[in-house]
Amino acid sequence: MTKYLLLKHYRGAPASFNDVPMDKWTPEEVSDHMQYMQDFATRLEGTGEFVDGQALSPEGTFVRYDGEGRPPVTDGPFAETKDLIAGWMVIDVETYERALELAGELSAAPGAGGKPIHEWLELRPFLTAPPTITE
Amino acid sequence: MDEALLRALTPTVIGILVRRGADFAAAEDAVQDALVEAVRVWPDDPPRNPQGWLVTVAWRKFLDAARADASRRHREVRVDSEPVPGPGEAVDDTLQLYFLCAHPSLTPASAVALTLRAVGGLTTRQIAQAYLVPEATMAQRISRAKRTVSDVRFNQPGDVATVLRVLYLVFNEGYSGDVDLAGEAIRLARRLAAMTRHEEVSGLLALMLLHHARRPARTGPDGRLVTLAEQDRGLWNTRLIAEGVDVLQTALTRDRLGEFQAQAAIAALHGDARTVEETDWVQIVEWYDELVRLTHSPVARLNRAVAVGEADGPRAGLAALAGLDPALPRHTAVAAYLHERDGDPVTAARLYAEAARSASSLPERDHLTRQAARLNTQLRS
């Protein structure tokens, strides 16, 4: 089993196919979208492939050590990746193909008009500890 | 296995050990060890006197640890000089324990963790689950907290206000795992109220009971936020509301108003209304005036603006909002609501969408997004 991180982005990824801001959807479309993601997570819990998922606030700050006795630096300029990550889900699956399949499915969450939003998700495998026994 | 009994006995047993000469940190450790043993032994061999059993086992654990400790000599001298243990006034000890665990030298997070363990009798694992942090992290937090208060003398009177703040923090925490922290905060406040006649203890207890009574109606089956106006009032727990009102009224007769009593009075007026329309907004505004006078809290002023909007119309609400800092949490959401009621859906939709972006919880963000979506849908048709 390998763990994969599915990253949802605020911006930065290419625009999704069905690219309508969420507040322009109908309340039912918003609910359906939430429900889809919830059902997806519940189903993966059932198959034993769900690890964790969290949403992130759009707020973010860069921080850097600025020397002994000085407050940390938080000023830019930076590539604003706080724009990027909206939330994540960790799955634990048998194969890369299964991870691709699930990411594709999550990206098909319905949006405006009840049609899939075709959102770009980033899929990244976790690094793991080296095996104690190598054959 | 009566876990509730174990939790109820925990603070008393710690208090007895401390009175016998154990320092607080060692006593707390010893009682945790005794609790673990109780969980193992009691199901097959229940004791006739659970408290006596716990005291005996915890004292033995304490002595084992003390003997093994480098400071053995020091502790044993102190134990020897202590008076012979007796039944004593266990209630006072427990009250001291509340003060110690909420000591001002502790950070709020540490005070909460220590209170839940030493006064609440929860295990480190249960507390870690409730706060969604690894057990090792929570164990460290508790050890650090115990080191911080290790020099605090156990017989000094404490500050009830800091204890109440800690209980309120516990109450306001969401819950996961197998312990309902809101219920736990109510249990601890009930015990505290039984030990002291402080009117704000009653005020906080009433406030928590009244809020807790509405919890079943506050979220939909899918975790969605349901606003007060839209809640199914048939789901409210009328027994808890009646108890809350009762506790509050007794406190108010002592004529020493504080912020928790004022907040409870507002919650009681909501709880009393069988329909939204029945809500006595005029009286609610008066209580918010009291609350603002008592606390000068910007959040109280913000909530007051909402109440003014209901009592005197949205224009009055917007006027009350005008003098407040727009950076206040939920300021934008309140402005959106008042603009919608004032017949300006375009501004309201824009503000709801803006409020959603800065929401601090997911259910709140989803709720505000739906509000914006609802207005934008109306505007299109």
What report would you give on this structure?
The complex is a heterodimer of chains A (135) and B (381). Chain A has 135 residues and is of the alpha+beta class. Helix content of chain A is 24%, strand content 21%. Chain A has 2 helices and 4 strands. Chain A has helices spanning 27-47, 96-107, and strands spanning 2-9, 50-55, 85-93, 121-125. A 4-stranded antiparallel sheet of chain A has the order 2-3-1-4, covered by helices on one side. Chain A is flat, with a radius of gyration of 18 Å. Chain B has 381 residues and is mainly α. Helices cover 70% and strands 0% of the residues of chain B. Chain B has helices spanning 3-19, 24-41, 50-68, 72-81, 90-101, 108-119, 124-130, 135-148, 160-172, 181-195, 199-213, 215-218, 238-252, 259-272, 281-295, 298-312, 314-322, 331-341, 345-357, 362-380. In chain B, helix 5 (90-101) packs antiparallel against helix 6 (108-119) and helix 18 packs antiparallel against helix 19. The longest helix of chain B has 19 residues, at 50-68. Classes of the chains: A alpha+beta (135), B mainly alpha (381). Chains A and B meet through helix 1 of A and helix 19 and helix 20 of B.
